[in-house]
């Protein structure tokens, strides 16, 4: 059985949704981490991945134009 990478085990659709929702409301990363039982670095990593994915999608859209 393959175990998930240590830095991605917390990156689940449910956590992503909770983080995005709280981030949009203006909560800071420490408050988000405490509310969903993650560490602050985990929350920051997930936010960074989400931003990278959105940036990549915008870049692909611009390349098509």
How does this model look, in words?
The protein is mostly helical and 65 residues long. 68% of the residues lie in helices and 0% in strands. The chain is built from 3 helices and no strands. The chain has helices spanning 13-24, 29-35, 40-64. Helix 2 (29-35) packs across helix 3 (40-64). The longest helix is centred in the C-terminal third of the chain and has 25 residues, at 40-64. The chain is elongated, with a radius of gyration of 14 Å. It starts with 12 loop residues before the first helix and ends with a helix. The mean pLDDT is 86.
What are its keywords?
65 residues, mainly alpha, 0% strand
How many DSSP H or I helices? 3
Q: Find the count of extended strands (DSSP E, 2+ residues).
A: 0
Distance between the termini: 44 Å
Low-confidence stretches: none
Strand content: under 5%
- The radius of gyration is 14 Å
Kindly state the percentage of residues in helix.
55-70%
Q: How many strands, which pairing sense, and closed or not: the largest β-sheet?
A: none
Element-level helix/strand string: HHH
Given the C-alpha coordinates, what overall shape results? Answer: elongated
Determine the structural class based on helices, strands and strand pairing: mainly alpha
In round numbers, the mean pLDDT is 86
Concise description?
The protein has 65 residues and is mainly alpha-helical. It has three helices and no strands.
Task: Reconstruct the topology from this structure.
Elements (H helix, E strand, L loop, with lengths): L12 H12 L4 H7 L4 H25 L1
